[in-house]
Design a protein that fits this description.
By secondary structure, the protein is an alpha+beta fold. Helices cover 45% and strands 14% of the residues. Strands 1, 2, 3, 4, 5 and 6 form a six-stranded mixed β-sheet that branches. Bound molecules: iron/sulfur cluster.
């Protein structure tokens, strides 16, 4: 893995953020493209936010991209462009939590803090056959203390080994115990109880959310706007969430798309509104300040996945017409 060959804190930081919610096989190409375009803090800090979002395309959870952009500007302003070395300073960067701060400080600056996350809980629970409930609010401090008992001198290597073991070997489902380098020391494995660990009692119930969008189009062009700092899909582009009465007669069809986000089940109704009147089209745009684009132009912007798919289908249908 390219990010295991470096101690550049910028690259380690980006890689930790990218792979927090994205599998390595899925995110590696995106990570490489991102680093190629934004090779250092300065380049990232000076970029336009929309370009950063564009390079984040395909990774999802776009608030991460917004945060790293702001954090890069923070490093330029507060640390003269030099990545902070101390754990507490790294923790102050926008979007950086205890896990990422521990990873960067240990890998790049010889910090002595274990990088504790869900992978870490799982691996330690299994190795020690420890039934501490990982949904308990004290799980972080419990597993941090446990980690301190086994922490070697080189904490950076230890943290990276735990990350790789958790993501590639000691996986949540079907762990590769027979190939695991720790199987002789793993209590859950020797007791044949791997499937019983980690213990998790509380399940977070996903909230149902209904959304409506209107795909308002005319002659291959359609209307979009940028979302505000909202609770989901911050700063991404979207279709109009409502239309005026004048446009109702132009509704041709409606499609319902289901989409899952962390802790949210979305049901999105997308109305296909093909406007036959130039006057109504123009006045709707002017009154609401929408941006007009076409499929080609939409490639320069980032959309939530369900809307991006809708545009792709529209592109195919429009080409056929
Ligand atoms: S032996 Fe299995 S359960 Fe134990 S650490 Fe290795 S992969 Fe995980």
């Amino acid at each position: 893995m390219p990010f295991r060959q470096t101690k550049d804190p910028y690259k380690i930081w980006i890689c930790e953020i990218v792979f927090q919610q994205t599998r390595i096989s899925q995110g590696l190409g995106h990570y490489n493209n991102f680093i190629k375009r934004f090779p250092d803090v300065k380049t990232l800090a000076e970029a336009e936010e929309n370009e950063v979002l564009l390079y984040w395309k395909g990774l999802g959870y776009y608030s991460r991209a917004i945060n790293i952009h702001k954090a890069a500007q923070q490093i330029m302003n507060d640390y003269h462009g030099r990545f902070p070395k101390q754990y507490d300073d790294i923790l102050q960067l926008k979007g950086v939590g205890k896990y990422t701060a521990a990873a960067v400080s240990s890998i790049c600056f010889d910090g002595k803090i274990p990088a504790v996350d869900g992978n870490f809980y799982r691996v330690l629970s299994r190795i020690f056959a420890d039934d501490f409930d990982i949904s308990n609010s004290r799980a972080f401090s419990y597993f941090s203390e446990l980690a301190h008992l086994i922490l070697p001198e080189n904490v950076g290597d230890f943290n990276q080994a735990m990350m790789d073991l958790g993501s590639e070997v000691c996986k949540p489902k079907n762990p590769l115990c027979n190939e695991c380098p720790l199987n002789e020391d793993c209590l859950a494995f020797s007791l044949d109880k791997v499937s019983e660990f980690p213990v998790k009692t509380k399940k977070v119930k996903a909230e149902d959310l209904n959304l409506k969008y209107y795909f308002v189009h005319r002659n291959g062009r359609f209307l979009i706007q940028q979302r505000k700092d909202d609770f989901i899909w911050k700063k991404l582009f979207e279709f109009p969430p409502e239309i005026t009465e004048e446009l109702i007669p132009f509704i041709k069809s409606v499609k319902t798309v289901n989409h899952k986000l962390t802790h949210k089940n979305l049901s999105i109704e997308i109305f296909n509104v093909e406007v036959d009147s130039e006057d109504i089209w123009e006045s709707f745009i002017t009154e609401n300040n929408f941006t007009v684009t076409d499929v080609e132009g939409s490639h320069d912007r980032s959309f939530p996945k369900p809307l991006e798919n809708y545009i792709q289908n529209y592109d195919m249908a429009y080409r056929i017409l």
